[in-house]
Amino acid sequence: MIVVMKVDSNEQEIASVVARIESVGLKAHLSRGVERTIVGVVGQVFPELRDMLELLPGVDEVIPVSKPYKLCSREFHPQDTTIKVGGFTIGAKEVVVMAGPCAIESEQQLLETATAVKAAGATILRGGAFKPSTSPYHFRGLGEPGLELLARVKTEVGLPVITEVMSPAEVELVARYADILQIGARNMQNFNLLVEVGKMGKPVMLKRGLSATVQEWLLAAEYILAQGNSQLMLCERGIRTFETYTRNTMDISVIPIVEKVSHLPIIADPSHGTGKWYLVTPLALAAVAAGADGIMVEVHPQPDSALKDGAQSLTFENFHLLMSRLKLVVEAVGRCLASPSVKVES
Amino acid sequence: MIVVMKVDSNEQEIASVVARIESVGLKAHLSRGVERTIVGVVGQVFPELRDMLELLPGVDEVIPVSKPYKLCSREFHPQDTTIKVGGFTIGAKEVVVMAGPCAIESEQQLLETATAVKAAGATILRGGAFKPSTSPYHFRGLGEPGLELLARVKTEVGLPVITEVMSPAEVELVARYADILQIGARNMQNFNLLVEVGKMGKPVMLKRGLSATVQEWLLAAEYILAQGNSQLMLCERGIRTFETYTRNTMDISVIPIVEKVSHLPIIADPSHGTGKWYLVTPLALAAVAAGADGIMVEVHPQPDSALKDGAQSLTFENFHLLMSRLKLVVEAVGRCLASPSVKVES
Amino acid sequence: MIVVMKVDSNEQEIASVVARIESVGLKAHLSRGVERTIVGVVGQVFPELRDMLELLPGVDEVIPVSKPYKLCSREFHPQDTTIKVGGFTIGAKEVVVMAGPCAIESEQQLLETATAVKAAGATILRGGAFKPSTSPYHFRGLGEPGLELLARVKTEVGLPVITEVMSPAEVELVARYADILQIGARNMQNFNLLVEVGKMGKPVMLKRGLSATVQEWLLAAEYILAQGNSQLMLCERGIRTFETYTRNTMDISVIPIVEKVSHLPIIADPSHGTGKWYLVTPLALAAVAAGADGIMVEVHPQPDSALKDGAQSLTFENFHLLMSRLKLVVEAVGRCLASPSVKVES
Amino acid sequence: MIVVMKVDSNEQEIASVVARIESVGLKAHLSRGVERTIVGVVGQVFPELRDMLELLPGVDEVIPVSKPYKLCSREFHPQDTTIKVGGFTIGAKEVVVMAGPCAIESEQQLLETATAVKAAGATILRGGAFKPSTSPYHFRGLGEPGLELLARVKTEVGLPVITEVMSPAEVELVARYADILQIGARNMQNFNLLVEVGKMGKPVMLKRGLSATVQEWLLAAEYILAQGNSQLMLCERGIRTFETYTRNTMDISVIPIVEKVSHLPIIADPSHGTGKWYLVTPLALAAVAAGADGIMVEVHPQPDSALKDGAQSLTFENFHLLMSRLKLVVEAVGRCLASPSVKVES
Q: Could you say which of A242, C56, D119, D182 would form a disulfide bridge with D164 (CB–CB 3.0 to 4.6 Å)?
């Protein structure tokens, strides 16, 4: 932590800053510049210290220099995290494809979709039973019966499944059915929920909040890792900007950023990231070209009858097209598509 | 709902759109312009319809014309909502002042602060027992013991209290102690939590999410109202922008907007809205000048020793100054400060 | 400037950073923390140094500690800048009101409006002859004939005038007619234009760019001051956020921020800041409550026939109402409205 | 244009809206819904009409349904625009690579860089002689002598050149040297400049403003096309968001959006788009995977001694690596890299 003094701060003010730092057991290190004096804080700083020092007279600014996250940081954990699910590995050379309907609507819809996406090469089935909805008047998912459908289709088709959990009280229930627990964007800072999924021994995918900075996202990841669960992957799904053409602005740059500052795998969701089906394929290709470890895509037998997010869902035909184009780009960046698993634990 | 056809859409495409609308029991109303044809949807539209129509060939755009919220809309409920708490009324002529520490740290800290803010004219005591924290390594509140301190100080000092609830499972517990339940910005779209507080018969204050649009905020309010709880007020606490000088950008314009489109009272929180104590007073004055029904301000006996948010907390002296300046502006806009309540229900 | 080394940086990397700093004639000051080493740069740093150091191996981050602006900084120039225009002073106790049509349309429109706003207490007449327009098909102002109308009405009514200049080549022309030269938001970083207005001996009002940070705005101001023109005031007119209800989000917090970090007067423009006439009055009151030195408001004889920005223009009646409410808030914060000037230099 | 009436609007208000529409020679088309009445405006609407109607009593909202741009719209001009420069075509199957230093510093720096980027496969040389700078104290380019160096190196190395023009008065001068005129992000709405470059018969590249919506960008393009210059390409270079890790957030989604709504070629600039050299390659690959017609990249012999933007510049070695990886992705999406031109018109 660095304390930048004001240009006109006096000796007494500098002395007070030094005294305050020493009063909490740390060392102060003075550096007198041409214009300003700077006081470095040496020792194990604690977060409240920033506010404390910023309020002292003569202080212009306090700048933290340590990163507030450790467990998810590549500086402290240089090796890539890899996660084994259903016979393949996320975060290694293979690129995974999670596909399926936004919301589970019926056994037929889910079964048809699962069969189609597996045939096209998808490796994980997605499908929501608990769905967040901005309006209380919209469809919010089938709930537990949806999870049961998911379990049945999973065994029948032979694909591991990812599904969302929205409430701390439902974590145990959802974990009974899911191979990967998904935390949605709106719950990225639902801290009680993060703690609960951190306690389960299951892989987790944490979506980035709509207006979360990289640092906040990594701190949310830190909540999960701090509970002892290291099977964590991140997922970019678009951020909020001033642009109104798309539902969100997909932040492709965050993919190489996460790869640089963290060891966690990074997935891209171009369906939510754009909100428009005709943007899904170009953004999926872009994500993989930028280094994503996988993509998550919404697919529906009849998008124009979907109960949720039809406008961003691909038809079977378009998903098939996406997969054939994706394969070429995946190989162009020296990776390969994960093969659909033969055996799935049930 | 209005369907805008593409410039080069043909008769068959228009006919399909009309047929789709009629197939769900609604009427289509054609309007042929110089450049484009527009199809109006007449009847009780449902939200999924938008996606459905947008996916049809020849359609350029689908524009909703009804507001997605009803219960919180002034169009459907022209009279102001007023909420009685501790002997005065929120949302009427009186302007209320909620003040206290960000987090409850100890009985002494809370008691001292409550006594001081009441003496200066505050009408409601704030103080958090459950605190959201972006980092798992920061102080997250005293929990239930904090609520007990709040109850004790409330009776001793004679001020109604507002405190945050973060989890559906804790709503009942917190409601036993609080006069007003607060939903924090990060939980604005924690839909399960909204439903739970909607079921309690207690006044609720719903903070705006960091990147929530007015419409999303009102839809979150709609969740609470839809459960039958009409004692709801909103609170602006700053939104996320590109500016880094402040922690957030306080959106003062939302105060008259809420007043225009909704009947719910609106409170302003310049402490979180700015993140810097020296901006709290000017923004509090601005909020009231723009029509806010109240302000919420963080006060601490020694901000430079606070366990949370010291940098945005006022000292007793600065809070006293704020109150004297606030009184003048409140009167300049034809309102008055609510008087500290004599009796508090306990 | 502070160089933060990576956690795993080695002695050789630290030595290279020190050597690089010394190679450009500055001193390096090492501070070894528990986790990281920090290198302070002592001496007169230059802007390119940041990039240079950031590229060296082992460097995690380079943090500037000096502010990049000097002339507009309160640290280096503690006294308030005040500007005399038409018999009163901007930036002192008086609050000025600039009012008039967005665009000058005709002599009658301008004369009527000028007479009305003066009668209601406005102190400066605004009116655009050169108008930026996002579309090439919209009205872009009358040009020089508009300036001539402005000159005629100025003398007839007796109000100093402010008008926009959009191009370096037109600065001299506009300066012949204007008492205050206005730089619009879209031209805040039109650096050639800033240099040209900096060369004139006339007061200038620099609007904040739609997505400009405070620092970028002050650096744009620095361009003007660096040419020797110290008669400069700033104007907040709304920034771009994700919110779509308003045209822009008016940033009221920037008013006390500018007052803290700079000595330049600060004006607020709630007409552009909101884009909706019914938000103009509450935001004007808020701006003054937060410490603005003046407001700029669009007024039109018949907003629903205006050639530009009718939706954000006040009628004469609404402007009159605004002035009576403004007076009360201005006095509540211990200031007074500037009186309409008796004599105007022509 | 669609006028949405308020829920409680009465017959007289509806009649006034109709009368206003007819008074300007257009037709009104009523559509009475369950909740609201909607009035369609039929005929050639003009932009001021929106404000005019929005101000009438009983009106809730006015929604434009025509796009405000025509010349750059794919609806009105379905064929792709292609631009021939130096023996290859921009906007067709070939992907172009523009590379070179941010700012021209010396003949040696430019010549070395031009030679290196050509050897690695670049097809156009970039280099700035007039440089925008947020601070008046930073390097702002060599000016005309820089253009002369550019001309010399162009002939010597045999690459067409692109360079920025910042002021209407300098358009003619810069056009004498440049094969492509570049309009920078900060000048996207410098409307006088747009008009001037529109008058030249030279190819133009228009960068997106830092906070420009797609619509504003296309309207800026429309300014140039409206002057009769159809040799126009667009360039995405990052937008401003709340994220502070990168200088800007590169909006990859805008690439397929521009392809859908416009016929103009689209280039991506990952150097400015990210501000960090180690993000340039992944974002360049992503841009091309998403369909970009070319990329623009900053290259410098010694980035850590660059006078401008060193932190985002690639070394020769890293540029070479980028080109070899780019080639694979370009081919994976069914395109090819443009071959360095043999002959350059001088």
A: D182
A219-243 as b/e: b if 16+ CB within 10 A = bbbbbbbbbebbbbbbbbbbbbbbb
Q: Is A72 helix (H, G, I), strand (E, B) or coil?
A: coil
Instruction: Find chain B residues with C-beta within 8 A of D77's C-beta.
Output: none
Residues 6+ apart with CB under 8 A from C164: C128, C129, C130, C131, C132, C174, C181, C182, C183, C184
β-strands C266-268, C232-236: how paired? parallel
Instruction: Give how far A30 is from chain C: nearest CA, Å.
Output: 9
The answer, for A29 touching chain C at a CB cutoff of 8 Å, is yes
Q: Encode chain B (346 residues) as per-residue pLDDT tens digits.
A: 889 999 889 999 999 999 999 998 889 988 888 788 989 888 878 877 888 898 999 999 898 888 889 999 998 899 999 999 988 999 999 999 999 999 999 999 999 999 999 999 999 999 999 999 888 888 889 999 999 999 999 999 999 999 999 999 999 999 999 999 999 999 999 999 999 999 998 999 999 999 999 999 999 999 999 999 999 999 999 999 999 999 999 999 999 999 999 999 999 999 999 999 999 999 999 999 999 999 999 999 999 888 888 899 999 999 999 999 999 999 999 999 998 755 544 4
Amino acid B113 reads: T
Q: Which chains touch B (3 or more CB pairs under 8 A)?
A: A, C, D
Beta carbons of D88 and D339 less than 8 angstroms apart: yes
Q: Give the integer Cα–Cα distance in Å for A157 and A114.
A: 7
Ranges of chain C whose pLDDT falls below 70: 341-346
pLDDT digits (tens, 9 = 90+) for C268-278: 999 999 999 99
| A47 closest CB neighbour out of B48, B55, B135 | B135
Chain D hits for C47, CB-CB cut-off 8 Å, are 135, 137-138
Beta strands in chain C (DSSP E): 2-5, 27-32, 37-42, 59-63, 83-85, 88-90, 94-100, 124-126, 161-164, 180-183, 204-207, 232-236, 266-268, 294-298, 336-337
State the Cα–Cα distance between residues D285 and D246, nearest whole angstrom. 18
Say yes or no for a CB contact (<8 Å) between A253 and D283: yes
Whether pLDDT at A40 is above 70:
yes
Helix, strand, coil % over all residues of chain A, rounded to 5: 40, 20, 40
* Model-level ipTM above the cut of 0.85: yes
CB contact, 8 Å: C54 with chain A?
no
* Domain-wise residue ranges, chain C: 2-63, 83-337
Please say whether the beta carbons of A150 and A127 come within 8 A: yes
**What token pair was written down for C65?**
């500690």
What are the angstrom distances between the C-alpha of D37 and each of B42, C175, C277, D2, D3?
Answer: 10, 50, 24, 11, 9
Specify burial of residue D230 (Cβ count, 10 A radius: 0-12, 13-18, 19+).
middle
Residue B323 to residue B338: CA distance in whole angstroms: 12
From A32, A33, A242, residue closest to C241, measured CB to CB: A242
The tokens describing C187, both together, are 């031209």
Secondary structure of residue A336 in the 3-state scheme: strand
Q: Which residues of chain D are modeled with pLDDT < 70?
A: 341-346
Query: In sequence order, what are the beta bridge partners of C128?
Result: C103
d(CA B308, CA B304): 10
Which secondary structure element, helix H or strand E, spans residue A167, and what is its range?
A: none
| CATH node for D2-63 | 3.30.70.1140
Burial class (CB in 10 A: 0-12, 13-18, 19+), B345: exposed
Using an 8 Å Cβ cutoff, are C187 and C166 in contact? yes
Asked if D336 and D93 touch (Cβ cutoff 8 Å), the reply is yes
Which residues, numbered 259 to 298 in chain A, qualify as contacts with chain B under a Cβ-Cβ cut-off of 8 Å?
Answer: 277
Alpha carbons D34 and B210: distance in angstroms, whole number: 35
